[in-house]
Amino acid sequence: MLRPALFGTRSFDAISQTFTWEVFDEMNRVLRLTLPFRDWTEESIRILEQLSPPQGATWRFVVRLVHQDDKVFVEPISILRTENKQSPVYQLAFDSLPQQAGGSVVATIN
User: Fold this and answer.
1) Under 8 Å between Cβ of 52 and 97
2) DSSP secondary structure string, 50-104?
3) Which has the closest alpha carbon to 53: 19, 87, 94, 84?
4) pLDDT tens for residues 1-56?
5) Whole-angstrom Cα distance, residue 49 to residue 10?
6) When comparing pLDDT for 41 and 108, which is higher?
7) How far apart are alpha carbons 44 and 62 in whole angstroms?
């Protein structure tokens, strides 16, 4: 479980086909959440690219640690959102963002 203090830059590397989101702890140390593109992660990556944690909110991430080629990758699985009393757990692989009229995606998870 991770509890970022700050959220940084997000990017998708077209060569490695991996989404990366920098998060920082209270001491301003960076950790990168990564999610490789696969058929079943496409929607999760799209959602992570659009998320904007509400100001003052504390999000926690349930993650999977992947050891590969002497490196450790941190893959997000779920987001625990204390500000959302009706739906505090957001499962990246199963949940979807609400749609606004006209079909555009809401950029925050409420």
Assistant:
1) no
2) H--PPTT--EEEEEEEEEETTEEEEEEEEEEETT-SS--EEETTT--PPBPTTSP
3) 84
4) 999 999 999 999 999 999 999 999 999 999 999 999 998 899 999 989 988 888 87
5) 7
6) 41
7) 14
